[in-house]
Amino acid sequence: MRKIAHHVKQFYEVDIHNTSVLRWIRRFGEVVAPFVDNLSPNVSGIYHVDEMMVHVKREHTDKGHYQWLWNLMDDTTRFWISSMVSQRRELTDARRVFKDAKRKVKIAKAIIHDGLPSYGKAFQKEFYTAKNPRVRNIRSISVRNQGLNSKVERLNGTMREREKVMRGMQRKETAQQIVDAMRIHYNFVREHQTLQKTPAEKAGIRLDLKNNRVENLIRLAATFKRE
Q1: Rounded CA separation 113/100 (Å)
Q2: Is 113 left (phi over 0), alpha (psi -120 to 50) or beta?
């Protein structure tokens, strides 16, 4: 945040505080999330889900000043569907992630995870059905399945790089706001190196954001809110 403030001062001769940058990022997520989460990405239905620890300075749990970030993304498009922060890794937390995904995407063929018991229990509650076609519950924990969940683990690495530079986040609520903003940036602004386009474009979402994708996303979100 301080480097961004320094950049703005150096190139635009405008003095801003680093906390202002943080507020802008949080506000960006608040404004744009309702719009982009209302869109319908054309995804494969094969989803990778994984959790990682994130440093949240002003929260204290049995893990210290840490929370769990749950990430769920599509296999083919790399579209980051769900990003949720929680204190624990229990059944209720995993179900929240799956419910959020079901709200945003209508198709599910397989859920790939690392074998955490909460995933299996949550899958039974949210995706299991006796009718065909059934959603497959794939536990990627054996040598045979090594690397099966690598796509979401790479996403975790991208998130870790950002969090390390920020030296952690402050509170659970603000951490969720920042992560949501990162998810939007990942899907709609940042061109994926492998895809050579954004995950949103790969998923068939054509918004014609042109060069200034951040500003045009805000404009579209504001129009969506008015209408």
Answers
A1: 16
A2: beta
Q: What is the pLDDT of residue 142?
A: 53
What predicted TM-score, i.e. pTM, was given to this entire model? 0.88
pLDDT band at 150 (very low <50, low <70, confident <90, very high): confident
Which range marks the domain in which residue 35 is found? 2-226
Sorted by sequence, the CB contacts under 8 Å of residue 10 that are 6+ apart come out as none
Q: C-alpha angle with apex 82: 80 to 87, nearest 5 degrees?
A: 130
CA dihedral (54, 215, 75, 141) in degrees, to 10, reads 0
**Which CATH number is 190's domain given?**
3.30.420.10
Contacts of 132 (CB under 8 A, 6+ apart): none
Q: Which residues does 223 contact at the CB level (< 8 Å), separation at least 6?
A: none
Confidence of residue 61 (pLDDT cuts 50, 70, 90): low
Whether the pLDDT of residue 21 is over 80: the answer is: yes
CA 149 centroid distance within chain: 16
The pLDDT of 40-51, averaged and rounded, is: 95
Query: Domain total for the chain?
Result: 1
Report how far residue 79's alpha carbon sits from residue 46's, in angstroms, rounded to the nearest whole number: 11
Say how many Å lie between the first and final Cα of the chain, rounded: 34
